[in-house]
Structures are given as structure tokens and as C-alpha cells.
Design goal:
This protein is of the alpha+beta class. The chain has helices spanning 4-16, 25-38, 91-103, 173-186, and strands at residues 51-60, 65-70, 77-78, 80-83, 109-110, 116-125, 131-144, 159-163. Strands 1, 2, 3, 4, 5, 6, 7 and 8 form an eight-stranded mixed beta sheet that branches.
């Protein structure tokens, strides 16, 4: 993952986003840019001490629902997401690929700007297949999908649509923040 042109492409995407200063997101965005500049290998899970990931909260705006996946290792309901893969050309592209793989939906519109950034410690499967303690520097998007459209599951992790206006399961802070952003976007 030492391709300078690829690193420049991802850096250009990070540099092109304007981030509101609320909630520490501006400082975190700056740290993301610095990490990529200092550690180009952070685009790969091979950098075990910490690397970038991309995710998206899938929303059906017509039905005011969000789709979550039960993460097999963490055992919690999360947004779709995962590691940057060699074929990904941007954070947004990686988030879209993860949404397709984990949800089974194909007609997904990932918003062009991230909804938020979230850095968190996590047990992570390394490139060698071992589980190691790492840090995920997650770029989080919102993604629009019609829950009634065709869905062809290719992964076995359970997914579920949750009504934004009714009780939801216990969620991580990061997922709660994304859902709050989705509610604001849908004006619920």
C-alpha cells in the first residue's frame, strides 16, 4: 500500500472536505490528514498500530429506517463498514463497497461528504489473520437506499432495519452520533 499516487488520491479527498468545527471534528479531521501524510501505510490493515477504515449508516428516508449489521467479532449492532482494500479509490468508494458487501443492496447512494470521523480502539484481524489490538481511524458517511429494492446477501452477518422513531438496541456512541445526524438530515 505504498503507491504514492494512490496515497495522494486519498489525501486529496481528505483535504477537499470542509468540516464543521463542532464536536471536535475539525481537530480530528486534521489528525486524519496528518496520519496519512506521516504514515502512508495507514491505508492498509497491515499497519497494525492503526489504520483507516470507511463506513456508512444506511438510511431509507421514505420509511425513516436505518440498517445495522450485527458485527461478528464485536457482537454489537453497527453501521456497515470495514478496511480500505487495494481496489478502493477513495474513502467514499470503500464505504460503498462495504455497504454492498454487508447489506446485499446494490442501489446505494453514499453522500459525497462524510457525516463524521471516529477514532476508536478495536480488536482487529491483521493482514496475517491474527486478532491484534489496533486503532481504526473511521471515515463515516450516510448512505441512502430504498429498503424495498432488491437485496442479494453475500455475507452471513445478520442485518436489521430499525425504525428511527422507535426503541433501538444498545448502541455504541459512534453509531448513536450517526443516527442523530441521520435524524437531522431527515428532519425527524
Amino acid at each position: 500500500m505504498r503507491d504514492p499516487a494512490r496515497v495522494e488520491q486519498f489525501a486529496g479527498e481528505l483535504n477537499g472536505w470542509s468540516v464543521s468545527p463542532s464536536g471536535g471534528q475539525r481537530a480530528l479531521h486534521d489528525e486524519y490528514r496528518q496520519l496519512l501524510e506521516r504514515e502512508p501505510s495507514s491505508l492498509s490493515r497491515e499497519r497494525e498500530q492503526g489504520h483507516f477504515t470507511a463506513s456508512a449508516l444506511m438510511i431509507d428516508p421514505l420509511r425513516a429506517n436505518v440498517l445495522l449489521v450485527m458485527h461478528p467479532r464485536v457482537k454489537r449492532w453497527l453501521q456497515m463498514g470495514g478496511h480500505i482494500e487495494p481496489g478502493d479509490i477513495s474513502f467514499r468508494d470503500a464505504a460503498l463497497r462495504e455497504c454492498i458487501e454487508e447489506s446485499g443492496y446494490r442501489e446505494i447512494e453514499v453522500q459525497s461528504m462524510p457525516a463524521r470521523f471516529d477514532r476508536h480502539d478495536v480488536p482487529c484481524k491483521s493482514a496475517r489473520g491474527e486478532v491484534v489490538q489496533s486503532v481504526h481511524w473511521d471515515v463515516q458517511f450516510l448512505a441512502i437506499v430504498d429498503s424495498q429494492s432488491e437485496c442479494i446477501l453475500t455475507e452471513d452477518a445478520p442485518t436489521r432495519w430499525w425504525d428511527l422513531e422507535s426503541a433501538m438496541p444498545e448502541l455504541d456512541y459512534s453509531v448513536k452520533q450517526l443516527i442523530d445526524i441521520a435524524r437531522q438530515a431527515l428532519q425527524l
